[in-house]
């Protein structure tokens, strides 16, 4: 491998390690000053090496991370003038066009990237993502499946595959794909919520409850999930579990009248009248304080 290619590979690895690969859908917020400094250094180097494809590629990556997508595209294209078979450059262009809302151009360059390197799971994923934007869900499904086949640990690809599968009315397989995504990334609260929606549509209350329990495990102060869990447990006749979540909701917000009232009624049903009496007194105190 040539020295210039080694340099580029190291740079890509460093960028990926910092969470700034153009192929990744949801990169972490970067340190803006670092990338501005990189741009200045790279531009100085280009003055003496104006046709160096790796300098252009790295400059494009830094512009991309700052959200300067037109500049990013300009330098990826300079890379392609010297290295026309650079799949990473096409992927970078595709991502930039996607961020600019130019879906057809993004799709065009992701296709070019895959013609060069068919085994890139992130290019498959990004192409699927753009087909979702274009409203072509069946095509999106094909590329999300390609991403998961190439990388069985790609949680985000399984999540998007589940999403389009659900939109295509295949609920059974959508649930399967969401569950696989959560095996790989158990702490993705949004995925839990999307899975809950399918469970609720299919009347699988117990499974929905389990997902809400996962949400409050991830975020114990999730006020809304506590209320929903308490309500679901009440409907299932599990008053003790319902009361537990209402009590936690009240700890989070001691003035939560809805939780206090519901908990008082649960205490009445279980004949804990003194506990219910204390709660009603607290409700009176809150009302008097607010008037």
UniProtKB/TrEMBL annotation:
<dbReference type="Pfam" id="PF14559">
    <property type="entry name" value="TPR_19"/>
</dbReference>
<dbReference type="Pfam" id="PF13181">
    <property type="entry name" value="TPR_8"/>
</dbReference>
<dbReference type="InterPro" id="IPR019734">
    <property type="entry name" value="TPR_rpt"/>
</dbReference>
<dbReference type="Pfam" id="PF13414">
    <property type="entry name" value="TPR_11"/>
</dbReference>
<dbReference type="InterPro" id="IPR011990">
    <property type="entry name" value="TPR-like_helical_dom_sf"/>
</dbReference>
<protein>
    <submittedName>
        <fullName>Uncharacterized protein</fullName>
    </submittedName>
</protein>
